[in-house]
Structure formats: structure tokens, C-alpha cells
Amino acid sequence: MPEKRVAERVPTILGKPGRALWRAIIADVREGFALDSRETMLLERACTTADHIAALEAVIASDGPTATGSRGQVIVHPALCELRQQKLTLLRLLGALDFGADAGEESLSSRRASNAAQSRWNRKANIEQRRAAARQKGGTDG
Length: 142
Hints:
two-stranded antiparallel sheet, flat, mainly alpha, 2 strands
């Protein structure tokens, strides 16, 4: 089977921050790995989000972190709240890119599921040990 290549063409809709993120992520992807359509879409959305973050940061740098409310009161700049949301969105989008999954490594979501299952099993074993100890002492099974 021929070796797959990562799509290296930067989408034209991206601004400078988005293009920089695209290139950085593509440079980190292993040789022979290809992005599927889901991963390409996630990466493009992450890069668009990086553009939005840069634009919001520019607004805050220009206006400051506060604004004047409708009654003349000082309020948090609306761009600051949106910036926080965009940063969370970027983290989630990048976290959804599981590049290791097709390379024979356990994906992040698989590791999380394994850790959760192990935690449940450990908790169940711990309860069983306590019950056995209570039975040995003549306690109840409860």
C-alpha cells in the first residue's frame, strides 16, 4: 500500500495566526499519516478559531479589558468573555485531533476510558475487600 501523505495545503480562508497553527500542527504530524475528512475539518476549525482569538486579543489590546455599560458603569469588555470562550473552543478542537490513534498508539479518548474503567474496577475491588474484612470481624455484609 502506498504511503499516505498529510494534506499540507493551507486553506485560503485562514488568516496569519490560523496559517501558523496549521503549519505547526502539520509539521508535528508523523510521516506517513494522512488526515481524514473529520480531522481536516477539526484542524481547519481550530485554525479559524486561532484567527478569532487573535482578532479578539487585538480588540482588547486596543480598548482595554473594560468597557462602559449602558448606564455608564464599568463592565468587563465583551470581547474578553468571548476570548475566553474561543480559547476553550480551541483547546477542545485540538484535543479532538487524535493523531496517535492510527499510528498504533492508544488515543487520548481511549486512555481516558481505560482510566475511568480502571477506577471503577479499583473502587469495586476496594468495596469487596472492606466487605470481606467486615465479615471476618463478624460484621454485616452491607
